[in-house]
Amino acid sequence: MNRPGRPGRTRAGFPASAHRSCPLFTPPPAPAGRVLRSARLTFRTSSDSTAGSADSHSIVPVTGAWTESAVTYSTRPTLSTSVPGTITGASAVSTDHSADLDATALDGALGSVTSLALTSSGTDSLRIWSSEATAACRPQLVLTFGDE
């Protein structure tokens, strides 16, 4: 059973040495008698001619509080040290991409608001559509639940 989380929100604009976006999701709790079996982040690169990236980008849980309207580089949220997934090969613009995630790293976030930071120490930033885009272009957290 696949259930997408709510559309994500991203906040970019950080210096090149600290590329970071933070899609925000509210994944549902596991249905009764089911457990999280797999998780995947799907997203679409923007139509900007430099939206794609040859660099890899880590997907890291956000552990600190933040709001989209108030976050700046100086007030950016803290991040977990775990990396449940990595984006690679997202070099094409206006293209759908996905990255598999370690489901066990997301299990504790089920049923609550959670953010996943997209980070890179490379020089090639990745630009993805956010919650302001049409529904088909928004980041999605796709969860697969199975029997216990």
SSE order in H/E notation?
Answer: EEEEEEEHEE
Mean of residue pLDDT values? 83
Distance between the termini: 13 Å
Number of helices: 1
Taking the sheet with the most strands, its summary is: 5 strands, antiparallel
Low-pLDDT runs = 1-18
Rg, alpha carbons? 15 Å
User: What is the percentage of strand-forming residues?
Assistant: 25-35%
The gross shape turns out to be globular
Q: What percent of the residues sit in helical stretches (DSSP H or I)?
A: under 10%
**Secondary structural class:** mainly beta
Strand count: 9
Tell me what the structure shows.
With 148 residues, the protein is mostly beta strands. Helices cover 3% and strands 32% of the residues. The protein is built from one helix and nine strands; from the N terminus they run E-E-E-E-E-E-E-H-E-E. Strands 2, 3, 5, 6 and 8 form a five-stranded antiparallel β-sheet that branches. The model is unreliable at 1-18 (pLDDT under 50).
